[in-house]
Amino acid sequence: MTDQKNTAATSKAKTATMTGASILWECLEREGVKHVFGYPGGAILPAYDALKHSKIHHVLVRHEQGATHMADGFARASGQVGVAVTTSGPGATNAVTGIATAMLDSSPIVCITGQVGSKLIGSDAFQEVDITGVTLPVTKHNYLVTHASEVARTIREAFYVAKSGRPGPVLVDITKDAQQGTCEFDWEAAKPQLPGYRPDLSPAPKEYAQALELIHNSKRPVILAGHGVVISGAMREVRDFAERAGIPVALTLLGLGALPASHPLNLGMMGMHGEAWVNHTIQEADLLLAFGMRFDDRVTGTLKTYAPNAKKIHIEIDPAEINKNVKVDVPLVGDLREVLLELLPHVESIDRSEWLDSIDRLKGDSAVRDIQNLPDSGHLYAAHVINDLWHQTRDGNTIVVTDVGQHQMWEAQYYKHEKPRSLITSGGLGTMGFALPAAIGAKVACPESEVWVVVGDGGFQMTMCELATLVQEKLKIHIAIINNGFLGMVRQWQEFFYDRNYAATPLLNPDFAKLAEAYGIQSATVSKRSEVFPAVESARQHDGPVLINFKVEQEDTVFPMVAAGAALHDMIRRPSPIVETAEDE
Amino acid sequence: MLNTFMVYVENKPGVLTRVASLFRRRAFNIDSLTVGRTEKPEVSRMTITVDADRDQARRIEANLYKLVNVLLVENITNQPAIVRDLALIRVAATHDARSHVLELASVFRARVVDVSPESLTMEITGAEDKIDGLLEVLRPYGVLEMVRTGIVAMRRGSKSNGAAASEGTATGATNDDVSQSV
């Protein structure tokens, strides 16, 4: 291959005249894509027409919001880029909620949207929407492609931007004429050209030294592990770091699974509905080590009194997160895993048993207040369902996908996640309707995993049209509806902060079991604790999807709770003992 | 305090929107923004002034860097720099006042670019406070119309950022700056 003639011949063989639509699928294949989630329409039809020549499997969704949530669930379960395809106008705007969800939780998805012909842009043509304008604040980056010759480079750049650095959604809007037009396709020549994009930062040596000094001088340190641990693949490094330094680990909602729940240094979840001892530990700490988390208001409570005596080290890949909410003493900007690998050899083993013992004492009466330790009052609580589900599926290779609200918090509290990516949930945006479509994406990504949807009766009805998608795709996904007949979390806020004025929170629901049957999905309705185990077991044995309608206590409350704007240690606790209140009814 | 940023961006459609949208989205108020060509056709340059404290300024810089089309950001607020604003000022200048107005214009080295029986229009270039000064002394005569471009700025000395910006190699304002400004 050294002589010029040969090289020329090779490069010639690498190019071919193709339509923009064919180039799109070819590039997706070369990026390793095997599944896309989409919905056809006028402006994307040339691409769909070319799909028949591709090996890519297309999952037909029932609403474009589902397509982006599925791509998101796929990405979160696998760590790979998820792909959604929609048409222009309403197809694209329907996708926006899913894109914003992925943005807030740093999930790598690429969303391909059709656009009207380039000559019609700006004319308010049928189904024309300026989707790059609409999605500007909710994408990591977006593109408008108006020529077939731009398709290949744009797709390559989109994938690179989506998955590198702090991952996020990238939208590629392709005009109809760009799909129909032809050009020479040359993969090699279409390399990304991103002169301004720098995803690879690393800290300066003196910053490492400053961090180590703080760590070694600390008597009461705590690690705050977030989603960044999972994204960076730093589970082992975090565990090694915690073990070597003897530092306990508190997790954010999206960090659950980053360290096994059974690990002795794992304290559990922090924040608004975190365990009381975890929040107290943070407030009493003299050093916070924030690992790939962003001090969201749901984990800090009011910033005025947040960890008042603690120095803060922030390891974070996104420089714009440094000092955004919490002022930190030492920022280490870089990939978490790489930064920890750099720090690890210098971390001294320090006996911090006194600190760990004092945290154990903080656990105090939490166990007494725990609903699991109370006698069966005949009521079915959501916590029972989650706890029993965990007991039955804990040894399996299970992914739980939750929606947003009370059931989400109970899942986080009572399902003990041992592995990363075993909980998929919408944290930052808090998108109701996320669970079912995201679970479909997760199951497509991990067909060998047992996938459970844990969803409220409110959120389920936002995207339940995707039941048809899961049936059409013959996916074995189990759906546990935590049905309390209320928009439970909103009702809880009304109970606490709006004088029990349950405005617009009671729900009149369909018979979910019958609904499932209409789709050909096996179903069961459970209203006693004794029925939970058999129902879950029967679902697991069934060769196909199962929906279980768990009719739980209607006015149950997630405890503890840090009211919005309150101090992290100022928690509303479950009244102790609860037995009497339950029996009084 | 008012911070001045020099921002090199890829000369592509929509980049101005991305930058402007960032300031809106993060609730930073732009005092002035100018954008124009540079010595390289593929690079445009913006001069942005924003009222922000030190921490906010650092976050603005970091957020600008998150935009894929942004090549280089420099906060030149506390650096020796040439800063220029241009104003066109139409001032009432009847027969009686005309010579006074012309005198003031000459003191400030403003150039008269249009004359009518009732008014004079002058052009002045300079630092913002110089233009403010001229406006102040013209006000008693009656400023009929005024427009300013907003500032453009360039660092003093021989150091040039253009080459670094177009190659995307200038990582100067990344980690080191993060730590320095913390």
Describe, in plain words, how this protein is organized in 3D.
- The complex is a heterodimer of chains A (585) and B (182).
- Chain A is α/β, with parallel strands linked by helices and 585 residues long.
- Chain A folds into 3 domains: 14-190, Thiamin diphosphate (ThDP)-binding fold, Pyr/PP domains (Rossmann fold); 205-363, Rossmann fold (3-Layer(aba) Sandwich), CATH 3.40.50.1220; 380-552, Thiamin diphosphate (ThDP)-binding fold, Pyr/PP domains (Rossmann fold, 3-Layer(aba) Sandwich), CATH 3.40.50.970.
- Chain A is 38% helix and 17% strand.
- Chain A is built from 26 helices and 22 strands.
- In chain A, the strands form 5 sheets. In chain A, strands 3-2-4-5-7-6 form a 6-stranded parallel beta sheet, with helices on both faces.
- In chain A, helix 3 (45-50) links the parallel strand 2 (35-38) and strand 3 (57-60).
- In chain A, helix 13 packs across helix 16 (353-363) and helix 18 crosses helix 25.
- The longest helix of chain A is centred in the N-terminal third of the chain and has 15 residues, at 64-78.
- Chain A is globular and about 70 Å long.
- Chain B has 2 domains: 2-79, ACT domain (Alpha-Beta Plaits), CATH 3.30.70.260; 82-152, ACT-like. Chain A, domain 2 (Alpha-Beta Plaits, 2-Layer Sandwich).
- In chain B, strand 2 (30-37) and strand 3 (43-51) form a beta hairpin.
- Chain A binds chain B through residues 132-133, 136-137, 140-141, 144, 161, 194-198, 201-204, 206-207, 318-320, 322-324, 327-331, 333-334, and chain B through 9-10, 13-14, 17-18, 21, 25, 55, 58-59, 62-63, 65-72, 166-168, 171, 174-176, 178-179, 182.
